[in-house]
Design a protein that fits this description.
heterodimer; A: alpha+beta; 3-stranded antiparallel beta sheet; 11 strands; about 70% helix; B: about 375 residues; PH-domain like; 7-stranded antiparallel beta sheet; 3-stranded mixed beta sheet; about 50% helix; about 15% strand
């Protein structure tokens, strides 16, 4: 962490000026207030976090500035609620209907809210961009959020059908759409990342995670006598498992094999996740363009592993403290709830203690994750960037206006929010 | 210190201007190296903006162009701060604002909990009677489909519903006689529909719109007709009070209150589920007590034996239930029995069925 010099050296690099300690303080205070206000404080916390990250990111000697306010986010959320209430009510009433509409309503609601979620993602991005100021000019985003939502939804379906194989092409296509409509002043953005390249890089990881599951499914098809299994299950009664075993003698072996393979798949996924994150971040930031400005990322995978090691360390430390405090709280809860003569008040108190413990634990781990992995990814992602063609920065003209925060509100209400 | 260096962006292009900043009488004067004045900002229009620790970044209030001035020298930044009322580098104003935000959100949380505890049941109480019977019926039909799918596992190999085979018809007739006597005394707005189903648990349940399910386990465990009648009277209480509809309204209200307005943070989901469970249990405990009182009054009115319901509850309720009281959806059996017995009249009662009819009802699921 370096301090800022009076005359920042002009260069192609990006620096992060923040201090981990200050960021920790911000997050811990935020987590405590989230708990007390049952989450309403999130608008203030998110704004604080963005202000901090933006203000401490220096590109070519000038820092970014985030001008969004918590009140805007709160208003955006309230608007989103106003839009969503009639929609939820409609689906609630439709579910009461006996005909096909009632039967289908769950499915339709899922699809509609999915599309709306993607719509919110695009609108929220527009809000964040138009609140990002650099050298006295703002970023902005044109384009239709509805078109983006339809495009994204179709891609998600394709990705689902291909068990993730289409995902690199999805990210590339959606990123092209987003960046094509992104501007810094009158400087147009674009995205040059190639989906095929990401696909080839990611394929080994995909195989490592999917192959054990595929082999297991193959083994099941090969070994199990499906007709006998169906008969045994349909007959019901107490001894279903016994009958399945007698008709399918090998099923126990296949089960053990399936468990081993499932374990292998999960282990690969966990170990490879930092590799995947590094790959995505490097690929994505190397594809960003603004006019003549070209970005290249030199992010190393080992750096991302470092962030996870720090996360694990802090998480263990937090777990030890939580176990000690939690043990004492459990004893207190037991004293309040146990015994012959229990009062409603004692039970409520015990429940509040247990629930509070759970929330503290969940929020604690999430805070540790944000302060280690997420901050490191931001910092590493930014500091590994190499910018060229920066002379374009001297004559960019202002364009674009601040947009409404409703996208952020929708994303918040639908749980599709980002940074 | 009356002047210093700074970096200025005019908000029109991204070009960087190294400027000299002078503290004037009522305004900040920003001029370039040759002395041209680029901007002249009155002190009361200066606005502080987010920046790294050692930089003072200011803009002009209400200005649509994003003009920015950055000052790096700490002493000069302090001098500017002294002049401008809106610039507050100690963070006092921000802290005070934050304090009021925290205060109000805590107040909002408390108010929401109070609404959940008192407001939602009161609201459901008022709204449920206003719903037309036809809508309630429709709601009941939807719930009925789900209830049936849940209860009927299709494993017994026989019909799920009792009282349909020829050998069971007499039992069904006995049940109808019992229910007609209760219905006549109750005077419900709509007809009651009842079915006996092959489930071994000693239980009965009422759906919105007047559909009552009686499990065969209940009839098996009963020792006389009035015990069955007492339980049915309790279910009629739920129908008369529209408890099924109220439960739907309450669940919807709670989901809205907790699911949408609160809880979008890590760990919030558990708080929402726990709060909903505890509150819904408290709503149903009240509904159960009210249905008990209704059943006792109805049994009295129909000339039945109130104590039979209490006896039946004691038998099927068994010993004290384990677990936490705040999660029970029924009040404790002991308390229920005591409350019901208080209603028992001294006057003589007429059994709901004679010995022959009672024997037939016992065989309603024999088919």
């Amino acid at each position: 962490m370096s301090s800022l010099e009076a005359e920042p050296a002009p260069g192609g690099s990006v620096r992060f000026l923040g201090h981990r300690r200050a960021y920790w303080r911000l997050l811990v205070r935020g987590a405590l207030l989230l708990m007390v206000t049952l989450g309403i404080y999130r608008f203030w916390l998110n704004t604080d976090v963005r202000r901090y990250l933006w203000a401490n990111t220096e590109v070519a000697g000038e820092t970014l500035e985030y001008t969004g306010t918590p009140l805007e986010l709160l208003i955006g959320f309230l608007i989103a609620i106003a839009i969503l209430i009639p929609i939820y009510l409609g689906f609630f009433l439709a579910a009461l209907d006996l005909g096909t509409i009632g039967q289908m309503s769950g499915m339709i609601a899922f699809l509609a809210l999915g599309v709306l979620g993607q719509y919110a993602v695009f609108r929220a991005r527009r809000y964040r961009l138009t609140r990002t100021i650099y050298r006295g000019l703002r970023f902005y985003q044109s384009g239709s959020a509805l078109l983006y939502a339809l495009r994204a939804s179709l891609w998600w379906i394709l990705t689902g059908l291909t068990i993730g194989l289409a995902y690199p092409f999805q990210v590339a296509s959606l990123e092209r759409y987003k960046m094509r409509h992104t501007y810094y002043g009158d400087l147009a953005g674009r995205f040059d990342g190639s989906g095929l390249r990401l696909f080839l890089r990611g394929l080994p990881m995909w195989i490592a995670v999917v192959a054990p599951i595929a082999v297991t499914i193959g083994a099941f098809i090969e070994v199990v006598d499906w007709q006998a299994l169906a008969d045994a299950a349909a007959a019901g009664g107490d001894d279903v498992m016994g009958r399945i075993e007698s008709t399918n003698p090998q099923i126990a072996d296949v089960m053990v094999f399936a468990m081993l393979m499932g374990g292998a798949s999960v282990t690969f996924a966990a170990v490879l996740y930092p590799v995947y994150q590094a790959l995505m971040l490097r690929w994505w930031s190397s594809g960003l363009r603004f006019g003549d400005i070209v970005m290249t990322s030199k992010l190393r995978t080992a750096q991302v592993y470092g962030a996870y090691v720090r996360f694990v360390g802090y998480a263990i430390l937090f777990s030890i403290v939580a176990a000690i405090v939690g043990g004492l709280a459990l004893v207190a809860a037991g004293l309040l709830a146990g015994g012959e003569q229990t009062s409603i008040f004692g039970e409520v108190a015990a429940t509040v203690i247990l629930l509070g413990g759970y929330v503290i634990l969940a929020l604690g781990f999430s805070t540790v994750y944000r302060a280690t992995v997420l901050l490191s990814l931001w910092q590493l992602g930014m500091e590994s960037l190499q910018l060229s063609g920066l002379s374009a920065l001297d004559q960019v003209k202002a364009a674009g206006r601040a947009s409404s925060p409703i996208g952020e509100g929708l994303a918040d209400a639908l749980n599709t929010g980002g940074y | 210190m009356q002047s210093g260096a700074g970096i200025f962006f005019d908000g029109i292009t991204s070009a960087r201007h190294d400027v000299a900043v002078t503290l004037g009488a009522a305004s900040l004067v920003i001029s370039d190296r040759t002395g041209n004045v680029l901007a002249n900002w009155p002190y009361n229009e200066l606005e502080p903006l987010t920046a790294p620790d050692k930089v003072l970044r200011i803009g002009r209030r209400g200005n649509l162009a994003l003009e920015r001035l950055e000052i790096f020298d700490a002493d000069f930044a302090h001098a500017v701060d002294e002049q401008a009322i809106h610039i507050d580098r100690t963070g006092m104003i921000q802290r005070r604002q934050r304090g009021s935000v925290i205060g109000w959100t805590v107040a909002a949380t408390v108010s929401m909990l109070l609404v959940a505890w008192f407001g939602i049941p009161a609201l459901a109480e008022r709204i449920a009677p206003l719903l037309p019977v036809t809508i309630e019926r429709k709601l009941g039909d939807a719930v009925d489909v789900q209830t049936r799918a849940m209860l009927d596992t299709g494993k017994t190999g026989t019909a799920f519903e009792c009282g349909t085979a020829d050998s069971e018809k007499a039992g069904r007739a006995a049940l109808d006689k019992m229910i007609h006597r209760l219905e006549a005394a109750a005077g419900l707005p709509g007809p009651l529909r009842s079915i006996v189903v092959r489930k071994v648990e000693a239980n009965a349940l009422a759906l919105p719109g007047g559909q009552v399910y009686i499990f065969r386990g209940l009839i098996d465990k009963a020792e006389n007709a009035d015990e069955v009648a007492g339980v049915i009277a309790h279910e009629i209480g739920h129908v008369a009070h529209r408890d099924g509809t109220k439960a739907v309204l309450q669940a919807g209200g709670l989901s809205f209150l907790f699911g949408m307005l609160l809880g979008d943070f890590v760990g919030g989901g558990a708080v929402v589920i726990a709060a909903k469970t505890v509150l819904q249990s408290s709503y149903t405990r009240e509904a159960e007590s009210a249905a008990d009182a209704y059943a006792a009054a109805l049994m009295n009115k129909a000339g039945g034996n109130v104590r039979a319901l209490a006896t039946m509850l004691t038998r099927i309720g068994g010993a004290t239930e384990p677990g936490m009281k705040i999660l029970l959806d029924h009040p404790e059996t002991k308390a229920r029995v005591a409350a019901i017995n208080k209603f028992a009249d001294a006057k003589s009662t007429t059994p709901f069925l004679d010995a022959k009819e009672w024997a037939a009802l016992k065989r309603i699921c024999a088919g």
